[in-house]
Amino acid sequence: MLRAQPLLLTLAWRNLWRHRGRTAAILFALALGIWSMVALAALSRGSLEGQLQKAIGNLTGHIQIHARGYRDDPAIDHRMPAPDAALATALTDPSVRVWAGRVRVPAVIASERESAGVTLVGIEPQREQGLSFIGTAVTDGRYLESPGDTGLLLGRKLAERLETALGRRVVVMSQDVKNQVGDRGFRVVGIFDAEPEAIETAFVFVGRATAQEMLGMGDTLSEISLRSDDRNRLEVPLSTLRTVAPSLDIEPWTVVEPLLTLTEKIVNVILVIWYAIVFAAMSFGLVNTLLMAVFERTREFGLFQALGMPPRHILGQVLVESLILLAIALVIGNLGALATVHALRDGLDLSAFAEGMEYFGVSPIIYPALSVGDVTMANTLVAVLGLVASLYPAWRAARHVPIEAITRV
Amino acid sequence: MERMTDNTVVLRNVSKVYRQNAIAVHALTEIDLDVPRKDFMCLSGPSGSGKSTLLNLIGGLDRPTTGEITVDGQRVDQLPKGELARLRLHKIGFVFQAYNLIPVLTAIENVEFVMQLQGVATAERREKALQILMEVGLEGLESRRPGELSGGQQQRVAVARAIVSEPSLVLADEPTANLDSKTAENLMQLLVHMNTEHNVTFIFSTHDKRVMDFSRRLIKLRDGRIVEDERRQ
Fold it and tell me: Are the C-beta atoms of residues B85 and A310 closer than 8 Å to each other?
């Protein structure tokens, strides 16, 4: 076969251009399919990545530490002690980039006119910078200055709902450690904006020490949240933390936010289904084109055999034609997808169509993210399965009996 | 297993029956034939007499219903497909009535085709192809594709392709059928030259009196049987 390769390549290449229109049409269809596979994967990954980053930034972090039972019932009863020396040391490990302890309990907030159920979050303002969204989310008024700050940060949407404003007073009530109602008046010192908007109505932020005092918690905490350098490589910090604090519930974001993990799996499944649909359409076009070419050249294939070309070379010739088509289409399709991703680098704004999606944490602006794995999978699938699909027309070409092929009109 | 013999082609009791629906058509019946090396032989007879069938069987393009066919010492009726292809590649040249050139290859590439399959080095096959194209009078037309050549020129390319690798045997089915008198005569003179200078055995099938006049042996077929075997000077 090797010595015939240049001949097969020449025949395959020139045969492809015997019907330029037909070849151009199938190339366009193949390239379009590949483009859609890669571009859609980039948009899906980008959307998913946006959701993940937002979720992680919206208080989740990479790892969360709680008292056992808190995740099932996030009430004050399931609080945990402040980090002991061993845990505090582990939290200063280089694998932990930033961490903070929080009070996080269900509460009711009331203005002069309205009230709403919220989650009261007591934070250490400086530690939250770089850990969660709240460090940079205040757009009116000021951010909290210390754990003992007596001000309150309110989401813009909640402020509208409560018909209150910056500088006004609100009352926050929650259950304290003695199962009594603990309440306190706060002045709204800052208004924050968040995405998705649901965050603005779900959380109010106060100084951690102020919250602990209000609820009689002493120095106990509801949770510790931390960020590492890579959200997908948490084995080392998880192992270290679980070793020094075996009585605590220490889990990565994938466990804390199972919906995100599920979303990632769903996206992967959707992509595979999409790949299968696109590939099926592409392969029908490819096989049809090759079959037409094979039927048209029945006499030629008979001639090749009469002249001494082994059937495997005829098989090879049709496969080389298919390979050339696929290679050109892959190059065009991938370049098209890269160009699309580049053109959308500032984001694809779907806000006109996707208001409701915000409630699910899906940003209306999607930043496409090309994944090497997705690109490799799409290209490998098209190249390998494309060749497999081409085996049928190639086999048809190779199985002709020379005399029947030559005498065929 | 290859056996050395003085005959390029030997047929023993060869019959070919085609089935058309339920009807058996006897294309050839009990043919016995010896074709010595360097023979220049012509098969003649009316349409349907079995000329083309006999050529196809000798060339291994088709298989006999019964009988033995030996080409250059090899039993072609028993060879598997791959071995048959190898035999055709190395020992048999074909010239078909309808030229049968490869349309996407130029004249010289068509001539080189068989040598390329044989694995002949590029420089050597290019030199041989140019030489044979010159001999068939197509110098300067090497780069033309079949569609850019006249019928006579195409047939000469097909002849050049058949003889360039000096096979033991060339089978030509009505080689002059589509040619004018002058071109046909030139072509036959070229084949005679190949026969005498390069020791190639030729078997033709033809209706053409001009071709028969060039042959040294004339076999007449009728209804699938040899009815006359005439040696000529």
Answer: yes
